[in-house]
Amino acid sequence: MPASPLDPAVITNLTRSIRSTTGATVTVIAPFTGEVLHELPVSGVTDVQESYAQARLAQLAWARAGFARRRAILLRAHDLILERTGLLQDTVQAETGKTRGQAFEEVFQAAGVTRFNALAARGVLRGGRRRSAIPLVITAAVSYRPKGVAGVITPWNYPLSLAAMDVVPALAAGCGVVQKADDQGALSILSLRQAFIDAGVPEQLWAVVAGDGAEIGGMVTEEADYVCFTGSTATGKRVAAQAAGNLTGVSLELGGKNPLIVLDDVDPARAAADAAPACFTAMGQLCVSIERIFVQRGVADAFLREFVAVTRSLKLGAAYDYSTDVGCLTSQAQLDRVSAQVADAVTLGATIEVGGRARPDLGPFFYEPTVLTGVTAAMECFAGETFGPVVAVTVFDSEQEAILAANDSDYGLNASVFSGSVRRALRVSGALEAGSVNINEGYRGSFSSVAAPMGGLKQSGLGRRNGPEGLLRFVDAITIARATGLIPLPRTGRDFERLAAPMLLLAAVLKGIRRR
Ligand SMILES: NC(=O)c1ccc[n+]([C@@H]2O[C@H](COP(=O)([O-])OP(=O)(O)OC[C@H]3O[C@@H](n4cnc5c(N)ncnc54)[C@H](O)[C@@H]3O)[C@@H](O)[C@H]2O)c1
């Protein structure tokens, strides 16, 4: 098992930028080995308050700096992220237990998100004139004002991507950020942040705090001008309830139980090969990963055979190079949760087609990618998010049956349809209750489309990140309407009497113009 390649001096330098006056630390374990990775300083409530106070001061100057300056700095950050790919991969792997390839995906995505927001912010947030209901009398213009300092709360599974998707649009829109990092993702976030600081983002503008979720996350929510939360649905509801007390806006990116529908006109071998990464990337610890596959009867046997073979062929292991296909789970808690769900399913009659075993010979948190059949509603993994490398395969007959089964979930985050016919795939996609649907692909299409919005329906979230929608979260739209003076505004009843007829005539003319 390889030791972490991270230089202890680099770790100490990075963790120094966590605001912490408590003197307390929390031990962070390297998932590949179970050994201590580092001691993370823990913030207190006053550290969060001080972070907000300083970020608010920095934000005023940042907002005044304007789009062109912010864009130049963010584009430089984009370049630095790519220049530091190796270091960022090492950090993500050491903290999460991902493979080299999956860590690369994160780095590349963080860079892509940065580039998109740097280039798009001005166009999306420029504002401009808007049509008035009484055109000759009033003109109206909208401008977008940064909300102030956003509170960003992130989980441990995709520390770079998830930080970038909330922090970068906030910065691009002229906001500051106080981010509550999960203990297990803090180093990656600090490494990413360093690229932005080196590119010219003021240090105080993006503060990172760490510590207990309820206490420190709660304080981040309390003080924020806007809250971006990524994590479980249960915690997301708590955050939303707390934010509601201050009427603070929130975006919530929550859990999923994402379905993949395999129609009977696919090449089963190809479909199986494409389905595997959708289920097992990051050991299934990805909000958009597939946990339910519905396969049409005509192709079911061939697909299952191929899918089991592909899953069995995946190379598990701890390596800081590209020699493995699948890494490990990130913590003992994750291993316990995944093992318990599989045990529950087997006890209640499910069949393990492949996998279903922990692999302590490879490292403390390794678990084999697992394919189950015979999963029923009585089992915990039927409806509850596993957030691990476990997928249930179920056979269906008609498209309608598959759509009903896929939509039979409290969640609605991501979905996927595999078909040889684009028309068929689009028909089924349009009926699915999910914030994103990928055709002939599991999750990467929508996850990497940084210019398109991403988010959940039902219990999977509120609001959208990425795309223009992701930027608009961080601004208040302010309308300034002005009396033109060309026609005096009515003040008295007689004024209205005089104006009513010409205004009705004007409305009729405008209606005619619109019709033409
Ligand atoms: N939809 C998405 O984009 C997305 C992305 C990644 C993960 N997730 C979801 O995240 C979950 C896994 O992450 P997790 O187990 O770390 O989630 P979690 O909800 O336990 O924790 C998420 C973050 O919230 C903090 N937190 C905990 N209690 C809090 C409180 N009361 N107030 C404020 N912050 C608090 C935690 O410290 C952590 O930083 C899964 O359900 C997964 O689907 C969703």
TrEMBL record:
Q: Which keywords fit this entry according to its UniProt record?
A: Oxidoreductase
InterPro entries noted in UniProt: Ald_DH/histidinol_DH, Ald_DH_C, Ald_DH_CS_GLU, Ald_DH_N, Aldehyde_DH_dom, Aldehyde_DH_Superfamily
Domain of life, per UniProt, equals Bacteria
Q: Does the keyword Oxidoreductase apply?
A: yes
Which sites are catalytic? Answer: 253
Q: Where is the Aldehyde dehydrogenase domain?
A: 23-476
Q: Which SUPFAM superfamilies match?
A: ALDH-like
Q: Which Pfam families match?
A: Aldedh
- Family according to the record: Belongs to the aldehyde dehydrogenase family.
Under the heading NCBIfam families, the entry gives: PRK09407.1
Q: What is this protein called?
A: Aldehyde dehydrogenase family protein
User: Upper taxonomic classification of the species?
Assistant: Bacteria, Bacillati, Actinomycetota, Actinomycetes, Micrococcales
